[in-house]
């Protein structure tokens, strides 16, 4: 069960702490002012580079060792907070931020920061899950990621890229705005080997209208 880092883990379940490790969280831009403003990725005009699909999320600048060192000091406190709250693992989101960086970040930049995240997670006794970047699974598993959380791997024909590297240590999420046949195929193909979950796109919580959480 995945919960935001500011929430508490679900009692009795293997709970994963969500950390937006490569981009700012929506509504938290005010946390990235002053000295922290220098850690936001900026284009040649000085404008922060936003995720085109999530325009209120700005990419973090992991392009240099100095900036990665400053960023890991921030994110390390979040990871430690996950451990203190009782989570078993961390999900580091937006590992694929280089693909949205207008060419300002490289895969080697994100891999270097991922290595820092792995070190911090393991230092705190937490497993770290790969999220996104299916094509990089062999490289990232080699860095030390412990498992994978996939979004829509059935819909985008990426599941084998994860299971071929992580085996049954894969947690698959498909969404209700896809045809129901997508979830049915995922369950038929892998439901007896890995956790396959269907969720509403907005990731609502129980009690909210439209909340969906189904397992095979």
UniProtKB/TrEMBL annotation:
Superkingdom to which the source organism belongs: Bacteria
Q: Domain named Glycoside-hydrolase family GH114 TIM-barrel: which ranges?
A: 7-203
Name of the featured protein = Endo alpha-1,4 polygalactosaminidase
Stored Pfam families: Glyco_hydro_114
Q: Which organism is it from?
A: Rathayibacter rubneri
InterPro entries attached to this UniProt entry = Aldolase_TIM (IPR013785), GH (IPR017853), GH114_TIM-barrel (IPR004352)
């Amino acid at each position: 069960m995945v919960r935001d880092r500011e929430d508490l883990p679900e009692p009795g379940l293997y709970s994963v702490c969500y950390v937006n490790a490569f981009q700012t969280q929506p509504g938290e831009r005010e946390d990235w002012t002053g000295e922290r403003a220098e850690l936001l990725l900026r284009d040649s005009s000085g404008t922060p580079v936003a995720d085109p699909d999530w325009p209120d999320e700005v990419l973090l600048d992991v392009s240099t060792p100095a900036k990665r060192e400053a960023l890991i000091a921030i994110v390390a406190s979040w990871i430690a907070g996950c451990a203190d709250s009782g989570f078993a693992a961390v999900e580091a989101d937006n590992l694929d931020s280089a693909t949205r960086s207008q060419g300002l970040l490289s895969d080697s930049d994100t891999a270097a920061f991922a290595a820092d995240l792995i070190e911090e997670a393991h230092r705190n006794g937490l497993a770290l899950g790969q999220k996104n970047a299916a094509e990089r699974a062999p490289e990232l598993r080699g860095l030390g990621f412990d498992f994978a959380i996939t979004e829509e791997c059935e819909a985008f024909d990426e599941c084998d890229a994860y299971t071929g590297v992580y085996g049954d240590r894969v947690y698959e999420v498909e969404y209700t705005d896809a045809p129901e046949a997508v979830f049915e195929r995922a369950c038929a193909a892998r439901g007896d080997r890995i956790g396959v979950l269907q969720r509403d796109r907005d990731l609502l919580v129980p009690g909210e209208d439209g909340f969906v959480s189904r397992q095979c």
